[in-house]
Amino acid sequence: MTSIDHAEWASYLLAAADDCSAVTAITKQVGEFSIDDAYAIQAALLELRLGRGDALAGAKLGLTSAAKQEQMGVSEPVYGWVLESSVLDDSGEVDLSGLIHPRCEPEFVFVLGDDLAGPGLTSGDVLDATESVTGGIEVIDSRYEAFSFKLSDVVADNTSAARVAIGSGAIGPRDADLTTVGCVLEVDGEVVATAAGAALLGDPAGCVAMLANHLGKHGQRLQAGWTILAGAPTDAKPLAAGTRVCARYSHLGSVSVRGRAHG
Ligand code: 0L1
Ligand code: MG
Q1: Helices then strands (H, E): number in the chain?
Q2: What residue numbers bound the domain in which 141 lies?
Q3: pLDDT band at 163 (very low <50, low <70, confident <90, very high)
Q4: β-pairing, 244-249 with 253-260?
């Protein structure tokens, strides 16, 4: 397998985001590289962003549903970071001038009241540590041409993270059975996808446990106060100027975003 310069590829991906210009997937240039190298590039990219004054707001899982895995042709969950700068204000307006080819997907969002340090955590541990659960929409934006990548590429690219809108309908972690919470995704008023929480590997809280257990192996933890995205139960839909995407949840209220052409 290829040996790879983590700092160089982190800068490559940051430049693509800065220029709003899609780039060729890393594997298309250097061949396959290991998942450990991919997470090392992701970590270097995070350091570059934190060095610019951004801050961590939480963490995310991606590709935790069959719908997403089938859409992207990648069959394993991935993990990344949520930055403060990516959290949208209540208007839900998304300035498209800062993005390449954004897509929207519904998200189950956990806000932690306590730290979660794996390994060995269960779904019940996650619910115990959770302050609230709400519905969200993640705006993803792969830095790669045509959203075309392999597993290691998308991990390096912080799992396509770009923006996130968090709804206001927060509930306690045990106020509803999260596996049966329903989600209806609409684009300009048309229903385009439906799912239940169980689409996320059987249990949204179990996905968060998986993330905490993964981080625990690397001496990291999910921190109290962080926002954790458990993944999208449906596939993602393009966000164009003027397009309004709304995710309506049972128990969790609804949240909308709208694409805006200029800053
Ligand atoms: O949050 C996500 O599910 C994104 C995972 C990365 C794959 C993609 O770009 O859809
Ligand atoms: Mg997502």
Answers
A1: 7, 12
A2: 55-260
A3: very high
A4: antiparallel
Q: Within 13 Å, how many C-alpha atoms sit on residue 153's CB side?
A: 21
**Domain count of the fold of the chain:** 1
- Residue 183 near residue 196 (C-beta atoms within 8 A): yes
Nearest CA to ligand 1 atom 1: 62
Among the atoms of ligand 1, which is closest to the Cα of residue 64?
Answer: 3
Q: What is the CATH number of the domain that holds 223?
A: 3.90.850.10
CB 236 within 8 A of CB 103: yes
The reply to whether ligand 1 has any atom less than 6 angstroms from the CB of 215 is no
CA angle 160, 163, 166 (to 5 degrees): 125
Instruction: Tell me the whole-structure pTM to 2 decimals.
Output: 0.97
Q: From atom 5 of ligand 1, which residue's Cα is the shortest distance away? A: 62
The count of other CB atoms within 10 Å of the CB of residue 182 is: 14
The alpha carbon torsion through 129, 48, 167, 227 (nearest 10 deg) reads 0
How many residues are there in the chain? 263
pLDDT score at 263:
59
